[in-house]
Amino acid sequence: MPAGTERYNVSGAGAMLIDIAAGDSITVTNDEGGQICEVVVADASGRIDAGMVGHGPNSDAAGLKALLTRQDRSLQRLRKALDLRGIDLAAAGGIRFFEATTPPKTQVELTVQRGGWLVIAAPGTDMAPDDQKTA
Fold first, then answer.
1. 28, 122 in Cβ contact below 8 A?
2. Edge-to-edge strand order for the sheet containing 37-43?
3. Which of 8, 55, 56, 88 is the most buried (most CB within 10 A)?
4. What is the pLDDT of residues 53-109, one digit of tens each?
5. CA nearest 98: which of 86, 87, 85, 107?
């Protein structure tokens, strides 16, 4: 990877919080295809604003909200981190990328307009071993 590049992997039914700065370029890749992605962006004061990455909201981030009700330890830590930063998902103007029919390796490019935080989620349910539903 080039210097200054960071890589994050979000597992299915997972989410993470990433510190972002003005000018950051973000590429979201749907590696295997068929995975929904939700993004919520908040400024330094915790105010949610999808425009910070050049998009309008098209989702209420229902998938992320559902993930945060789980008892998974990493998701509980994320919930605490959002609370500490004053990010209230009740007012979420999220961005939803990709669908169950999205082909593998599909990408979305985002450019950060001002600093804050980006929450990225790969919402989904636990999959049965014999199930083929990926999103």
1. no
2. 14-20, 116-122, 37-43, 95-97
3. 55
4. 999 999 999 999 999 999 999 999 999 999 999 999 998 899 999 999 999 999 999
5. 107
